[in-house]
Design brief:
It contains seven helices and 21 strands. The chain has 319 residues and is of the alpha/beta class.
């Protein structure tokens, strides 16, 4: 029986692996891939689609997302973590030991740390994929500083879109919110704050039909009308998509308590509703969604798991 199985290999999962491995727990890390639901649990998490990371402590010159993932992975391996290019196909958290099905076989473990992350929802455009990390982003907090003195678009109509638009005004000369309806879904206070900001404009009843560029970076976008008006060509240096995230938690449904929005319900610290099952990162945190907060939760989850294992050992449960 394993002591710790970590599901996910973003900053949350890999930080949990560092702490668990240093505690001589020899954790198994399921790196990721396509889940049974068809969703992709990206090995390395959202950092793998992030170019420059300038807000992670310890890297004054910045570091690319993939490089940060690889350095963290190597750090965990140095202390003895074991890594599989696999996902959790099925789980059984109904009793002790906990069970996780990997490549058709059941693994047993005393504890499990869920760090499956969340995927940003995208517009589904070919041009969006073409200019990903070259002007297209889903995180204003992460990438806004790279767009100083530029005109920017942000797509969405909820509170997150309003927050991101307001954040981008720190850097941009102008921010245009593109919304396919005539009113926002955001709370009244957030919508008013955004609409009344001198740097923010709103393109009502519009949706991004195409993102344009020079082959290397975004230079503009074509906005289609949802009410039959002609298309509108706008110049911009970046397009930020803020239409929500989807947590990779489908495999855990009916095994632990999830919130109505699909995120893992945190009972206490990093504990879930199932004993021995802990959670870290964006699959539980729908608010911050930062590498550093995910890493912090990974540390907490590993320490909580280690404490429970000490209790199990004292009770003779681990043999």
């Amino acid at each position: 029986m394993e002591k710790v199985i970590i599901i996910g290999s973003g900053p949350a999962g890999l930080t949990a692996a560092i702490y668990a491995a240093r505690g001589q727990l020899e954790p198994i890390v399921l790196e990721g891939g396509f889940l049974p639901s068809g969703d992709l649990m990206t090995p390395g998490g959202q950092l793998m689609i992030t170019t420059e990371v300038e807000n992670f402590p310890g890297f004054p010159e910045g570091i690319t997302g993939p490089d940060l993932v690889e350095k963290t992975r190597e750090q965990a391996k140095r202390f003895g973590s074991r890594h599989l290019d696999a996902v959790a196909e099925e789980v059984d958290f109904s009793g002790f030991p906990l069970k996780v099905k990997v490549e058709g076989e059941w693994l047993e473990s005393a504890t499990v740390i869920i760090a499956t992350g969340a995927n940003a929802r995208w517009l589904g455009l070919d041009s969006e994929q073409q200019y990903m990390n070259r002007g297209v982003s889903a995180c204003a907090t992460c990438d806004g500083a790279f767009f100083k003195d530029q005109k920017l678009l942000i797509v969405g109509g909820g509170d997150s879109a309003m927050e991101e638009a307001l954040f981008l005004t720190r850097y941009a000369t102008e921010v245009t919110i593109v919304h396919r309806r005539a009113e926002f879904r955001a709370s009244k206070i957030m919508a008013e704050r955004a609409v009344n900001h001198p740097k923010i404009k709103v393109a009502w009843n519009r949706e991004v039909a195409e993102i344009t560029g020079d082959g290397n970076k975004v230079t503009g976008a074509r906005l289609a009308s949802t009410t039959g008006e002609p298309d509108l060509e706008v110049a911009c240096g970046g397009v930020f998509v803020a239409i929500g995230h989807t947590p990779n938690t489908g495999v855990f449904k009916d095994h632990i308590k999830l919130r109505d929005d699909g995120y893992v319900d945190v009972v206490e610290h990093c504990k879930t509703s199932a004993k021995g099952v802990f959670v870290a990162g964006d699959c539980a945190d729908s608010h911050y969604r930062q590498a550093i907060t995910a890493a912090g939760m990974g540390c907490m989850a590993a320490l909580d798991a280690e404490k429970l294992l000490e209790e199990y050992e004292a009770d003779g449960k681990l043999g």
